[in-house]
Each structure stands twice: as structure tokens, then as C-alpha cells.
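Lab notes, practical 5.
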Amino acid sequence: MYPTDLKYTKDHEWVRFDDGGAAVGITDFAQRQLGDVVFVELPEVGRQLKQHEVFGTIESVKAVSELFSPVSGEVVAVNGDLGNHPERVNNAAHETWMIKIRPSVASEADALLDSAAYTELTK
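Output from the prediction step:
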């Protein structure tokens, strides 16, 4: 079962909403599919994103995958620690955020999956 305090996308990103912001990372399912993560490319603070827009890439020993924004908004923080320690995604996928967004369209959160729906998607 995936953490119930998170929302999920069909592209395997998770979102944690708090204090008007949204932290974004990839799910444990995604990191297991990727294998050992060796590089993460993230956007600059201030970038405006639209829902489903590519905001970066994640590279593993197996493949390079795009990262998609679960909601529209402004990037207000980037986890710079991942530049030196991308493997943290493998060690704690649901605790390792990549970017934080200030959402601009509140209703977009309604389209995200809850834990049960995401669990069903990944069966």
C-alpha cells in the first residue's frame, strides 16, 4: 500500500500538499522500475509549470525518464541535495521530494489518484 497522505499521478509521481504548497517526487513503484538512480535534472526556482508538463529528467543505470508536473504552478524550491546524492530517491522514494510547487489551479488536485487507486493502477 502506498502512503495515504500523498496523491499520485498515472505517470508515477507523488504529491504532498501542505501550507499552500505541493512537494513532488517519484513513487516507490517508479524507482523500482528505474533501478539505481544516478542523476536527476530539475528546473530552476521560479519556473512556471502547467499540469502534465515535463519539469525534469531522472536517469538510472537502465534508462532516462521524464518527470511530469502533477499540478500547474510556480516552482518555489528545488531539492539541490539530489545533485550530489541522487540515490536518495532509491533509499526513500516517498520521503525524497524533488521540487516544491505553489499550485495555481486548486481543482487540478481533484484529478490526482488516492493511495487505493494508485495501488490498483500498479498491480
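Observations recorded by the TA: The CA atoms of residues 89 and 96 lie 6 Å apart. The helical segments are 28-34, 81-84, 88-91, 115-121.
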